[in-house]
Amino acid sequence: MGTMSGVVRRAPELPAWPQYSDEERAGLIRALEQGQWWRMGGSEVDSFEREFADYHGADYALAVTNGTHALELALQVLGVGPGTEVIVPAFTFISSSQAAQRLGAVAVPVDVDLDTYCIDPAAAAAAVTPRTKAIMPVHMAGQVSDMDALAKLSADTGVPLIQDAAHAHGAQWQGRKVGELGSVAAFSFQNGKLMTAGEGGAVTFPDSELHEIAFLRHSCGRPRTDRRYFHQTSGSNFRLNEFSASVLRAQLGRLAGQIDTREQRWPVLAEALSAIPGVVPQSRDERCDRNPHYMAMFRLPGFSEQRRNAVVDALVERGLPAFAAFRAIYRSNGFWETGAPAESVDDIARRCPNTEALSADGVWLHHRTLLGSEEQMHEVAAVVADTLAAQ
């Protein structure tokens, strides 16, 4: 069944997202019946933090309200604030830059690699100034950024890294988990993420000092045992609730199996997509030896943004969970409201040609696509092929 017969090929019935089972139900009841529903009196958040840290090879984890707050808190702990700069990839969800800008810092966009879609270490190096307080690689779609080159850049300049790991739960770089790479990492549990409670986030830390500072700042500067309102630092309320944590504990329990499935399906889908003229899937740096595949991403080189958008709309009409790639952060009005560099849009665009291309011709499919069967991967590719043929 295809366009030749006049019948539009429909996508297969792919697994739903979010996924849940009796583990989530049991967790919610457990949280309900413990009698204390916030982290200072309950046990779910504490337990989740230990389990999440262990899974990612980190010494400490702190659960927070959402992924954007995770980034903001991590940056603040590293000293980001007014008068400082944070280097971010130009191709990312805008929370990466807004977290820095909310703290009064200037977000400096740099270009990404056209194969992996991750930050270009050479572009990051060229952007370092005496005001640079952090460099934020984003592990795009689960593909870990070049942490070897970035670690060397950090060591050479003294500028710390903060990993935006919103797409990278369970990822590994040369056998090392995200929490074992020596830098702070921030995760998201928003509804579409690899594990979710609707919203939520976490920050992992390589040492107790950073973790303790973060704990204070995520709880209005108040120590755990304070009874007299002695707030030691400024801060906000980024505390996660017990119900969300109970769901996340269950979600974490099935993450590894889901990653195994996606790792098996992506090569099948990528090969099938590669066989379609004009389709170029995201490449994989083999040093990333475990990729959770938050997105199944590909490019349509030569397509305008309008033509790409028409393809995405047609894919959605055919039943695929398809999306346009992120817009370059400097091409959104929100980027320029506060904490923008002293450059024009055109200035930044000229030094970010890869971001310009990806913003115009990039497409992604939600990771639930990769939880389908091997046969369904071929069916998905056939839908993409038919859709492009009809354009």
From TrEMBL:
CDD domains to which the protein is assigned, alphabetical: AHBA_syn
- A Pfam family of this chain: DegT_DnrJ_EryC1
Which residues are catalytic?
Answer: K193
Q: Name one GO molecular function term.
A: pyridoxal phosphate binding
Q: Which cofactor does it need?
A: pyridoxal 5'-phosphate
What Gene3D superfamilies is this protein classified in? Aspartate Aminotransferase, domain 1, Type I PLP-dependent aspartate aminotransferase-like (Major domain)
**Which GO biological process annotations does it have?**
polysaccharide biosynthetic process
Keyword terms, alphabetized: Pyridoxal phosphate
**KW rRNA-binding (keyword) present:** no
Would the keyword Membrane turn up in this protein's UniProt record? no
What family does this chain come from, according to its entry? Belongs to the DegT/DnrJ/EryC1 family.
Supply the name of the protein.
3-amino-5-hydroxybenzoic acid synthase
